Amino acid sequence: MNLTRLTAVLAGLLAALLLAPSARAQALDRAGLIANLCGNASAMGEAASVLTGLAMSGDAADRAFAVPLARAVIDRKLACDDAGAVLTENGLDAVTRQPRAAAGEPLTPVLSLKNRATYEQVDAALALRAAPEASQRAAALKTLERRPALIPEGLLEAAAAAEPDAGLKGEIETLAQTAALTAADPAARIRALARIADNPSRRALTQVSALTADPAYAASPEFRAAVDDATVRIGRGIAVGDVLATAYNGLSFASILFMAAIGLAIIFGLMGVINLAQGELIMIGAYVTWLVQQGLRVVAPSLLDWYLVLAIPVAFFVTAAIGIALEASLLRHLYKRPLMSLLATWAVSLFLMNLVRVVFGTQNLQFETPFYVTGGVPVIGDFIFTWNRMFAILFAVVTLALTWGLVRRTPFGLNIRAVTQNRDMAACIGIPTRRVDMMAFGLGSGLAGLAGLALSPIYSVNPQMGQNFIIDAFMVVVLGGVGTIAGTVVAALGIGQINVLIEPLWGAVAAKVIVLLMIIAFLQWRPEGLFAVKGRRK
Amino acid sequence: MSLTALLVDGLTVRFGSFRALDDLSLAIDYGEVRAIIGPNGAGKTTLLDVISGITRPKQGRVLFDGAIDLTGLSEAAIARAGLRRKFQKPSVFEGLSVRQHIAIGADVGFRARLDAPALEDRIGEVLETVGLVDHSNRLAGELSHGQKQWLEIGMVLASDPKVLMLDEPVAGLTDEETERTAALVRALKRPDRAIVVVEHDMDFVERIADRVTVLHEGRTLFEGSMAHVRADAAVVEVYLGR
Question: Residue A21 to residues A17, A25, B108: CA-CA distances in angstroms?
């Protein structure tokens, strides 16, 4: 044992000679450290700075060695004797970590008031770097947070770089910024400002603008310039982020509008029937998605995360079947009477809504959030590229492509377009218009079901959710020009963006009113909408 | 195949108190071009509407090919049976291309009759016949009035119908276009096809028709060749008397 100790001391001396003055990089003199811990106040201070060095840049084994020491000193669980010290908590020798009992009358070192604060800090620093549990590291971070000025520079950066937990990592980085901003060294503060300005956010702006009250702001022109510069850069970043966030939200809202409207557009364009039950078909699509989720929970829990994908055909075909049944049983008899069909579909809408209320209740449905619609990527400022909105956007794009392909590239689509443009002529060249009506109604209803699926990760799903969409969807159809896919896309984008632009300024209700007025004004100028099929309607 | 393509038997159609067709009977044979003329309101277009299934008669029936009663069938079913009709106003699909029109006319519905190469051949043949080869990829909305008329004829022709009904095929056409249309209609005449033309233009009718039926107030006023029609006192009375 003595030999080990001697070797360690020699190695320590050698390293000190070779690598001085870099105290951190030298191999740890474990015995010397323990001796210092058992020594007087100044020796304990030295030991604290060694431990701090370990927390920042020592190798992992040394750090693991050091972790229990500071805590043991604070809790007075370190028993010093002639042979070194014993950690009384678990009866291990402090140096070798072999079990042994303290010899003779062991002394327990007492921390001075000044050293106590230092040791708290050191303990937290070590725990942050080396504790196995994320919760322990989080607790250590809380301790460090209390005295940011005492945190050694570089510790938090090193800890953040090594931190596996993303949330904790973010917290460490934030604290690192705060610590650096309140550091004593003005150059470090200016560097910290530049770093903060690289990641603009509202929180960073609050942090930086608070510095204008700092004495250094008035005293040092360099610091002042750095603060002002950072404020401007952060402000710019936030502005860019806000614009992007608005555009992104508008795009996702437009996707939902498009999904809700495309089915309506096909039905209205083909048959001139305003299907007020379209909103309820959206709602049923969302409920079917929920049922698929519940079914998977029972039948195949391992596939639960993929319920949104697996529900696609189910939602489509269930709502399509409801649509076809509706067409065949009710609307078929009302084609020549648009007002009657309007009222009939309204009645169906109320019926479906209340049926769902009775069967499922009125509360919002709980949806699992699969990993592919969770979280997002922070881009700039407060703009986060969220995956649930991206899911809706991608879903709408794919639906658009498929619908376009179906209408433009298949015989069924050719029949739909022929019947839309001239029903009598289509009938007289042998197109079975009744069947085209029925299948197109099914298609339009199925698309509504898909819309319900797409918005289930974003909006709350309840029996009256369809009501929120039918008016917007109808505005999109009218603005776009009856029965055109391109018009529906452009109108959805326009209405979606304008809504999202106005909402933060004057509120959601005002946004709806203003958009409605704009559409009315636009239709005075172009009654046929943005893109109208040239055709005679009777 | 019976000799009679269409047998109209005691048809009566009323719109309110107005009798558009009043116990009308006539027979149209395969291989003939039959013109139906008459003053406005005589029931010409109504007759075509009944045959093609758009209007349901109050009484009477229409037999196709001596056996098939058309009066209960839907428009699409009648079209599938082999009766095709061109409307009075050019009824083309303005948003579809010329080629798509012919394709729809030739190969409609959910059961395709022709495979892809056969369809291409048929489209080429029909476009050749109606003289729209150079316009095959244009949208129908961009065509001139005359071209729309021919396109519509091409569309109804594409399925190779047994009965071809043309409602005012030369209305609004120039003399030259009328000339071309007359030649086209004559060229469409075949022993296994009946062509029914409703028209006001007497010169055109004279050039194309084998026989002429004159309608007046929903009844047959006269039937015979154009030369006889011109000589008939009752017809002259109806046309010129008021």
Answer: 8, 9, 91
CB-based contact B100 A432, cutoff 8 Å: no
The residue type at B225: S
- Residue A222, number of CB atoms within 10 A of its CB: 12
Do A439 and A470 reside in the same domain of the chain? Answer: yes
CA of A422: which chain B residue's CA is closest? B93
Clarify whether residues A258 and A333 are in a common domain.
yes
Instruction: Work out how many domains chain A is built from and give that number.
Output: 2
Taking contacts as CB-CB distances below 8 angstroms, the residues of chain B near A431 are 76, 79, 104, 108-109
**Of chain A residues 402-431, which have a CB less than 8 A from chain B?**
411-412, 414-415, 417-418, 421-422, 424-431
Task: List the beta strands (DSSP E) in A32-176.
Answer: 78-81, 84-87, 92-93
Suggest the residue from A336, A417, A429 to mutate for an interface test with chain B (most B CBs closer than 10 A). Answer: A429
Residues A251 and A226 in one domain: no
- Nearest C-alpha of chain A: how many angstroms from B233? 37
Of B165, B156, B168, B180, give the one whose Cα is nearest residue B101: B156
From A188, A208, A235, the end of a domain falls on A235
Tell me the DSSP string of A48-84: HHHHHHHHHHS-HHHHHHHHHHHHHHHTT-EEEETTE
CA B204 – CA B35 distance, rounded (Å): 10
Chain B residues lying within 8 Å of A412, measured CB to CB: 110
Indicate whether this model's pTM tops 0.90.
no
Structural domain of A487 = 243-361+386-525
What pLDDT digit, counting tens, does each position of B124-158 carry?
888 988 888 888 888 888 888 888 889 989 988 88
* pLDDT tens sequence across A345-377: 999 999 999 999 999 998 998 888 888 888 788
The answer to whether residue A377 sits within a structural domain is no
**How many Cα atoms are found within 13 Å in the side-chain-facing hemisphere of B52?**
28
Q: Tell if the CB–CB gap between A429 and B74 is shorter than 8 Å.
A: no
Q: Which of B49, B110, B115, B164 is the best residue to mutate to test the A interface, defined by the most A CB atoms within 10 Å of its own CB?
A: B110
Dmax over CA atoms of chain B, in Å, equals 56
Chain A contacts in chain B segment 24-83 (CB below 8 A):
52-54, 74-76, 79-80
Which CATH architecture fits B4-240?
A: 3-Layer(aba) Sandwich (3.40)
**Position A372 in a domain:** no
Q: Same domain for A289 and A325?
A: yes
Q: How large is the angle between the packed helices A221-271 and A465-480, nearest 10 degrees?
A: 80
What band does A536 get if pLDDT is binned at 50, 70 and 90?
A: very low
